[in-house]
Amino acid sequence: MRVRQSIEVISGSDLLLLIEDNNKDAFTDFYSHHFRKLILVSDKYVQSIPAAEEIVQDVFLKIWEEKELLSEIKSINAYLYRSVVNSSINFVNRQKNIEKHHLKIADHVVIDDAERHEEENELIVLLYHEIELLPEKCQQVFKLSRLEGLKYRDIALRLNISEKTVENHMGNALKILRSRVSKAAEQSPLRKKFKYFYLMAMYLY
Questions:
Q1: Is 58 helix (H, G, I), strand (E, B) or coil?
Q2: What is the CATH number of the domain that holds 196?
Q3: How many domains does the chain have?
Q4: Centroid of chain to Cα 177
Q5: DSSP H/E element including 26
Q6: What's the predicted TM-score (pTM) here?
Q7: pLDDT digits over 150-181, tens only?
């Protein structure tokens, strides 16, 4: 039975020697010896074992990819500990920034939605105000047509007037309302002007 001989790795140069000698058993021992301990170190910062495992794996991967730098490291234990702590802190900071970014987006969405609803409600109130200023029959015909969705024939039956009269009242109501809304749009800033056009497209055509 072959007994694996443990090789003490103190400096970066010791570890570099293992890698250059392709001593897989010794490197595996080195990796296994530090892996779990470093995960516990990282977990104190990131509070997540899967994230800690990924951080520690990345540290070992970096050692393998940049092995030419190992010769400058006097204490490999201190290097590993420092690398894992720094990577863990960077991970936590990234997560905090991502969370802040998401909260910022959510705040903007809420504010934008509230402003949009407020503007739309303001315009609808304006429309209702203008409708109330119409002659009585025009008001009735417009409300039954555009707000309740009745056809001219049904409006005529309900109001006991001809369809032609309904058509005339509707034409008069639209003419007055378009004129008033267009004038309000002309006197408004650009952003609100588009809201008036939207209102006109929704109810006045």
A1: helix
A2: 1.10.10
A3: 2
A4: 40
A5: helix 24-46
A6: 0.48
A7: 889 989 998 999 999 999 999 998 888 888 88
